[in-house]
Design brief:
This protein is an alpha+beta fold. The protein has helices spanning 2-7, 14-22, 32-48, 65-77, 90-99, 110-121, 142-164, 178-184, 190-204, 212-233, 328-334, 355-359, 366-369, 394-399; strands spanning 56-61, 83-88, 125-130, 170-174, 237-241, 248-253, 264-265, 271-272, 281-283, 285-295, 300-302, 305-307, 311-315, 318-323, 344-349, 375-379, 408-412, 419-423, 429-434, 437-438. α6 (110-121) runs parallel beside α7 and α8 crosses α9. Bound molecules: zinc ion (2 copies).
Length: 439
Amino acid sequence: MLRLREVAANPNLDFMSSVATLAPTTFASLPFAQKLDRLAEVAVRIGLGLQPGQELVITAPIDAIPLVRLITEHAYKAGAKLVTTFFSDDATTLARYQFAPDGTFDYAPAWYYDALATAYRSGAARMGITGANPALLAAQDPAKVSRANVAVSKAYKPAMELITRHAINWTIVASASPAWAALVFPNDPPELALGRLWDAIFSTSRITSADPVAQWREHGANLKKRVDLLNAKRFHSLHFFTPDGATDLIVGLADQHLWAGGGTTAGNGVYCQPNIPTEECFTTPHKSRVNGHVTASKPLSHQGTLIENIRCTFKDGKIVKATATAGEAAINKLISTDEGARQLGEVALVPHNSPIAQSGVLFWNTLFDENAASHIALGQAYSTCLIGGEKMSSEELSALGANESLIHVDWMIGGPTMNVDGLAADGTAQPLMRNGDWV
Ligand code: ZN
Ligand code: ZN
């Protein structure tokens, strides 16, 4: 039975297996350690598609140690050559902003990011675990936060380019932490909040059925069907509009744009799911063909700062005005990062009936919130979202309308009232989404 094979990876399951033959075990009734083990297995097998003999580099917050240990076990069982994890810690990150000399915030450890790039070039797979406190830096000086982010983006660029070009298999999964849980469920006592956040991660990550690996294959195939349909349409642009007028935005699509979703075959030939969870179909907009105004449907947590009720006006691709009820200085710093930071690099469609949207949980974490709603991203485009893009120079990509920037920040614009039309070159409209769901 499938259930036995899945649980065979865990040494404590002989007892559970015999129980399972008497009464079917539901995911909810499993001990926490087994739920976590299942997330780890899906992250390695589905998220990365880790290959025998492949090296794996993980980055994780220190709170994620239990998940990292299980992921490491599954990686070695899958034949990993070596697993190396770099941990980060919220308290030491915060200490820098509180005590480091002001003149040091333009520095980033290039030696570290160069090492990541070297690892990718020599064939390592990459897993990021998200789970730090989304509001960690909310009270810190936005100028310092921005300077540090720019320094990291510059140092990270060579490694990041291998990621955005999907040269290697990579994935991101989440691990709940007390600080994150307190933000998501502020009215619950700490233990309960943490448990609820874990449950939300497990259910939205689609690991709760008897055979999550098969469930993921089916989910990937469904997304692929949608992607194929959108690619066949060759729309010139998308029209986002809400009945209250909060959003009325035309997003031109790049020439030779390619829709993607539900997994990618990386340049090294390995099939991976770069995000767990994922619900989006996304493509590359044309960097100078975006016009109108748009209102964010969810707050954005960007590098420890919370930005709420963002409203932007676009003219010929560029944001000409950006306001927010909280974090307005942060959003304006962000779009001033470089030339491409006020232009779009991604547009994505996500139906309101996706499990994340239906959970009703605001995660304050882009991995989840971007998969709850249609969204746009400021900054760098994915070259894999253009026909033949992964082999093009940056000049060729730019000529097709693909944006270039040090940043890539997704923010959510979709919701239960969002309508989307696909527009042909002659302006003919075809309804794609009504009231947040596919037509
Ligand atoms: Zn996206
Ligand atoms: Zn994105």
